[in-house]
Specification:
Shape: elongated
Low-confidence stretches: 1-7, 243-249, 358-369, 480-485
Structural class: alpha+beta
Strand content: 15-25%
Number of helices: 14
Oligomer: single chain
Strand order of the largest sheet: 7-1-6-5-10-9-11-8
Mean pLDDT: 79
Distance between the termini: 49 Å
Radius of gyration: 30 Å
């Protein structure tokens, strides 16, 4: 059995039906497959059939322009319910070959390829079997692609090819693709809008191919493009937006209801599904989590169970959850698949799967995480649910000229990407060794000379006198401090003579801006206290770090 190397994306397969809205309209009997057909959304053409494209009709073209080019063009309005209803028979046909099918959108499904390939013998045999099964059972023409990572498999399906396994082949396949391909992986409206804005920005920056985008440093992408940019960067590198999930630190979010009386029609069941979707969205919002999959489960009056899983990108709104449930109910209850429910629906359940703040959790190098780590992850999720994503922060090492700048705090669950490169030159940085402890906020302190005057540092970095002692003032009490224990101070209040000192090292950052930062650093070794890294700015001394 082939092993998945660390950092390598899962081997995925994608089945794609070209021009699915047109194919759905043909399956519903609204159009003849031999005549030019186009689907529009009121502003322009969304998709055109092959005969329409041969006549010059293109996506985004206005209706009047399309009709002028092709007078016999049949124009149909966008109908997501029709698309989903007609797609259910095709998904059922795919399930006869592949288990655990994930619907990305009507017209496209994704699945893990390793298991089915072992069953049928090869990737070529699997692709041929899927295309033949779908054509035999539904009459639809589809294309199958297999590759490492979600975007690779999607582009492979559109090209009808199988990308060889391995990072080298994946990188070569993706390198020349247009950055607009990133929009294929968006499965919600909001994700599609954000990705389209990202693609426009990348083009204005001169990054027109996935290869050019993938060559950027992860830290640079995080600093400039944020979370959506990081997810797109992972796709461009041939990885998944979320790593494969081996376990979940938190239970799925579930919302369920009983249908009384039982529902035989899709409109009746959809009315209950709307309230259920709003309930699920509210529960996810309260816990501060997002999900990657939405499972819709229904039970019939005679005890049978129906289940379908949809892909969800990011934080879905209640309306987006409602749409997917309504589409699925239409697919089940319309009877087009020839396998409608055996009895009216009595129970409807929505399950948000693969939940997490922003990233997925997977096993460590040596297997399952220890119990304490799992409990800590669960506690972090609960705290984030109460306080928000920024309520739990973790440090990330990055480049900088001083210890405080070299640490970045990110929300727990986000990708721990630095904003600045650690291997870049940092002229003027504080010389090593750096302190082991950096206070959350700099602590006030007095640095005095032998005469008791405050040591000052001029613009040239020259000290007014040799430091002789430090004075640590007592911390001022905070409101409500009597009701809770105070955090231990890194240095006890008092006056300490110095055994040794070094510096000062002046540092001026952003000298050209009005908010320029001018400070100087000094290392001191007090008698009776730990060694300290001090910084002076505008005449005030602060403790920037404590040495072990």
């Amino acid at each position: 059995m082939a092993r998945q190397e660390p950092g390598q994306a899962a081997r995925r397969g994608v089945l794609w039906v070209p021009d699915w809205p047109v194919a759905a309209a043909v399956a519903e009997g609204l159009a003849d497959p031999q005549v030019p057909v186009a689907v529009h959304d009121g502003r322009g053409v969304v998709v055109a059939s092959a005969p329409a494209r041969a006549a010059g009709v293109r996506r985004g073209m206005r209706r009047r322009s399309a009709q002028q080019l092709c007078p016999e063009l049949v124009l149909l309005g966008v109908d997501p319910v029709r698309d989903a209803r007609a797609f259910e028979p095709l998904v059922q046909a795919v399930e006869t070959v592949v288990a655990d099918v994930l619907v990305v959108r009507p017209g496209m499904v994704v699945f893990l390829a390793r298991g089915p390939v072992r069953h049928v013998g090869s990737e070529d045999a699997l692709a041929e079997l899927l295309v033949g099964t779908v054509a035999t059972e539904t009459g639809a023409e589809c294309q199958v692609g297999i590759g490492d990572g979600l975007l690779t498999a999607m582009l492979a399906a559109r090209a009808g090819v199988l990308v060889p396994a391995g990072p080298g082949a994946t990188t070569t396949f993706l390198a020349g693709q247009d950055v607009a391909a990133l929009t294929l992986a968006a499965s919600t409206r909001q994700a599609g809008v954000e990705t389209a804005e990202l693609v426009d920005l990348l083009r204005r920056l001169g990054l027109r191919t996935l290869g050019a985008f993938a060559r950027l440093e992860t830290g640079d992408v995080a600093a400039r493009l944020g979370t959506r940019g990081l997810a797109a960067h992972s796709l461009a590198r041939g990885l998944d937006m979320r790593p494969p999930v081996a376990r979940r630190p938190e239970d799925d979010v579930v919302a369920a209801t009983e249908l009384d009386p039982p529902a035989e029609r899709a409109d009746v069941a959809a009315f209950a599904a709307r309230a259920l979707a709003e309930q699920l969205s509210e529960r996810m919002l309260r816990r501060g989590v997002v999900c990657a999959r939405l499972q819709v489960t229904a039970r019939t009056e005679d005890g049978n169970e129906l289940a379908r899983t949809w892909s969800i990108d990011g934080a879905p709104t209640a309306a987006e959850l409602t749409d997917r449930v309504r589409w699925q109910l239409e697919g089940w209850l319309s009877g087009r698949s020839g396998r409608p429910p055996s009895a009216p629906l009595t129970h409807l359940e929505l399950t948000a799967q693969e939940v997490g703040p922003a990233g997925a959790v997977q096993d460590g190098l040596w297997g399952h995480s220890r119990r304490g780590q799992v409990q800590a992850e669960r506690a972090a999720l609960r705290v984030q649910g109460l306080l928000g994503a920024e309520g739990v922060l973790v440090p990330v090492l990055q480049g900088g000229r001083n210890p405080r700048a070299a640490a970045r705090l990110v929300a727990w669950g986000d990708e721990p990407a630095p904003l600045r490169r650690t291997d870049a030159p940092w002229p003027g940085r504080v010389p090593p060794p750096w302190p082991a402890t950096v206070p959350t906020e700099p602590l006030p302190i007095l640095l005095l000379d032998a005469a008791g005057a405050t040591v000052r540092v001029d613009a040239r970095g020259t000290a007014s006198a040799a430091p002789a002692r430090v004075v640590v003032p007592a911390p001022e009490p905070l409101p409500g401090a009597a009701e809770r224990p105070a955090a231990p101070a890194p240095v006890d209040p008092g006056e300490y003579p110095l055994l040794a000192w070094a510096g000062p090292w002046p540092a001026t950052e952003r000298w050209w801006a009005a908010e320029a930062s001018r400070r100087a650093y000094v290392q001191v070794v007090p008698d009776g206290a730990p060694a300290l890294l001090l910084a002076v700015e505008r005449g005030a001394w602060r403790v920037e770090g404590v040495y072990d």
